[in-house]
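Teaching note: in complex prediction, the entire set of molecules is handled at once rather than each chain in isolation. The prompt given to students was simply: 'Predict the structure of this complex.' The entities are:
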Amino acid sequence: MSDLTLAPELSVSQWLNTPRPFSIAGLRGKVIFLHSFQLLCPGCVAESLPQVRRIERIFANTDLQVIGLHTVFEHHEAMTPTVLKAFIHEYRLTSPIGVDQADGQSDIPVTMRRYGFRGTPSSVLIGRDGAILHHAFGVEDDIALGARIGMALAAPVPAATPDENAEGCVAGICAAPAGAA
Amino acid sequence: MSDLTLAPELSVSQWLNTPRPFSIAGLRGKVIFLHSFQLLCPGCVAESLPQVRRIERIFANTDLQVIGLHTVFEHHEAMTPTVLKAFIHEYRLTSPIGVDQADGQSDIPVTMRRYGFRGTPSSVLIGRDGAILHHAFGVEDDIALGARIGMALAAPVPAATPDENAEGCVAGICAAPAGAA
Amino acid sequence: MSDLTLAPELSVSQWLNTPRPFSIAGLRGKVIFLHSFQLLCPGCVAESLPQVRRIERIFANTDLQVIGLHTVFEHHEAMTPTVLKAFIHEYRLTSPIGVDQADGQSDIPVTMRRYGFRGTPSSVLIGRDGAILHHAFGVEDDIALGARIGMALAAPVPAATPDENAEGCVAGICAAPAGAA
Amino acid sequence: MSDLTLAPELSVSQWLNTPRPFSIAGLRGKVIFLHSFQLLCPGCVAESLPQVRRIERIFANTDLQVIGLHTVFEHHEAMTPTVLKAFIHEYRLTSPIGVDQADGQSDIPVTMRRYGFRGTPSSVLIGRDGAILHHAFGVEDDIALGARIGMALAAPVPAATPDENAEGCVAGICAAPAGAA
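The expected output is the structure of the full assembly:
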């Protein structure tokens, strides 16, 4: 694995649906499905968010971690955290959702730029070793997506070294060992 | 036809997608499909608004008038006209949409209460004589909806009397004669 | 109405789902939805036959008469009446279905040729006066189809003349007056 | 792995879509998706066969082997090999399909009884070691199905012993080594 494929860290201004922040480093050892959306994006509402709910249900008893990222890059005046909270309530979204950190100089928020998302919906699948396994723009076929997540979950959990363990704690919060979730 | 079935007038604080206001009285002689929605209502976004677009396309060459009514009765802080404008842009809605007049004392806006809508999505079909032909809560079957509109359009255009013509002008704006649209 | 648009008569070798034969002449005064299918036609099975079931349900209390026509023009060795009977049982089709009369010299059966059907699924809507109101190849939009049937049902029932009445009786069977169904 | 979970052998009277017969033993080392259907089964036609086509497309470059089994247990007079051939042509099915061997004394064909299929559609997923990994009656969620196949493909290919190799050749035909397809 080259460092070039390592998933960049999240930059989030506000977390919803969770009492604690999440980080890529803190989830090392788990598989992560990170999906990027905007609440006024028709394809997100009609297709990718329902798919996320199916993923949550089907992998509920695995150590897959689903994380949503609200990557507002247009209509900033409309897609505020206040509106996002009402949206989450009406659409009954349950997994943790981070508001991508606005960039003072660009319409594109910070994490979206780091990951190179071309628009919404986008998603990345991150393996137990922190590498990006797949990067998608648009909605993918359910069977192909299921197969990728299944293969990622089948990978062995990497042995933790003391140093890695240290990195596993972020902002005073440490990830549970893989397999404990 | 009893007066009890006459469609009540609209009370709208702001019109979008149209340079001029619309009124039920001003449309006398035409068939009206009035649909009520909220931008954060999942059933509206997933089902009733796509159905409205199908209606607009299929009856484009008839004198059916489609009118949307944004009847916000919850999450008032989130579903503001600013957000509605972005929503209309993203979802490419093209027929006239009125913001239902807020009621200072109740969460239910004025027109919604007049029509007795129980929630969103709701719709009413109004005949050429101004009578309510059908009242629906939820999304209806396309074939049944098409049949009702087809039957309403097949009804003869009522002869206008001078008085009725006078009523056809509202707020300084007069509706085109039925059949001219 | 020109005679050129009059619906041609059916030529059926076997009727299923009905104890008595049907004819276009015998249904004068009613609206007829005649749909043509083959049991091994994927578009018929996936789309047009489910649409026919919706039509049957929605217009159950009107005098619309739905008639199916099994117009086999390929795989004649496979789509026999024996297989059609099992198909009707498994797919729970309930309206009368006629087996289109095979033509000894052509693959195209007799009624299919008379109507000029280009393939399956096809359908025609026949008005109360026996005229073809609409001719479709492929599956149509539900709203448009509902509107056409609604408009056809809204047409006045033509006054019967003694001669027309006589034509209304076919093979010893007379159609009920329109509106009685 | 207990012998109880080993996939039973196929008993097929006729193969379609393939010049050579297939066997479970001859595919040892590969993952097998075996799906059971009847051509007049509405759920098979509407849901499971389209899902099979998606599986074929998505796993085209893996060593997953898809096999269809026509398990006729009703309407035997209608669902003959002649009709099945026309069905395969119209529905453009491309993976190998075996006609399950009729049982002279029971309506249930031989392989269907061996596998304990309760009806159609049914399917089993068979691992590289010949064990049944999953048994389904009805159509499953695409994501869950994709995950199971992905995990099965991620399993290591078992080392072949000379004896196992011998069993790998059936009817004079030997399976290619896993990974070669």
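Point out the following to students. DSSP finds five helices and eight strands in chain A. Chains A and C do not touch (no CB pair under 8 Å).
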